[in-house]
Amino acid sequence: xxxxxxxxxxxxxxxxxxxxxxxxxxxxxxxxxxxxxxxxxxxxxxxxxxxxxxxxxxxxxxxxxxxxxxxxxxxxxxxxxxxxxxxxxxxxxxxxxxxxxxxxxxxxxxxxxxxxxxxxxxxxxxxxxxxxxxxxxxxxxxxxxxxxxxxxxxxxxxxxxxxxxxxxxxxxxxxxxxxxxxxxxxxxxxxxxxxxxxxxxxxxxxxxxxxxxxxxxxxxxxxxxxxxxxxxxxxxxxxxxxxxxxxxxxxxxxxxxxxxxxxxxxxxxxxxxxxxxxxxxxxxxxxxxxxxxxxxxxxxxxxxxxxxxxxxxxxxxxxxxxxxxxxxxxxxxxxxxxxxxxxxxxxxxxxxxxxxxx
Length: 358
Prior knowledge:
Layout lengths: L1 H9 L6 H9 L7 H36 L11 H35 L12 H4 L1 H8 L2 H25 L14 H42 L3 H12 L2 H22 L5 E4 L4 E6 L9 E7 L1 H12 L3 E4 L1 H10 L11 H14 L6
Parallel strand pairs: 1-4
Antiparallel strand pairs: 1-2, 2-3
Helix pairs in contact: 3-4, 3-8, 7-8
């Protein structure tokens, strides 16, 4: 017990989305049984209040044949089983709608609370579900004790409310003795409806309180320790150190590929020490010069060195190099606003190398 309290004290972090999704897959959701019970009771109350009179009328009409003309139903006539079967199916058909309504109420309760839920892991066979030790631990756990006390409190409250509602009718029972059966049934129905409505109102309050408690308790159970949050982050996003190392490796590979593309450039524009941008222009392939490499400081120096090694023209233009470094990425065409300035440089380089007539 002390270990559990210590673990709960360490769970200070709100559950992550991944933790919540995993708990849903296991069927661990904040579901209040009191809300389900209230919806069932509400549906039953509506059914009793709306169809009880017509149901009794239908039942009376079916029974009238047996009560008014019993002499026509002899044992040897062979009609009794057939009549009973017909009456049974007619009554069953009349009760089918209320049954469907109650069935829908039973499914609507969980759906309204947690939405659509498919949790195959909840029905997966597990030895812990049939373990005697686990069973006793669940039976005498704090949650079970709280649920037991809640059940007693609910019964007590409903009993008190029922007693308060019925008490005024205790002195009126005698007058029902002389009433016709129809009137007596009407009074009993009114009393039952009053009692049911009172219980429905009380159950609604209990269900609301229980739903709030279940959600609070579920969130409390789903809370995580700082270490659990870190471990989950490592699982989903990867170890930060490994992630940083991979990022560094990817950056180095991209830099190597970029340096390998420098020899294919036609010109390198510099500022001249801090920035270098290598451009390639082939009128048959692209409509504008293409940036094949760019760099700053040491990278810019390395680009110039490779350019010299491969006899690539290096042109100094401080504002142009600085501006294009910020606006042009690798393997992108230069922006239209730099066409004129770059075209002059490209033309100069091409003429110098004999690619264009002087």
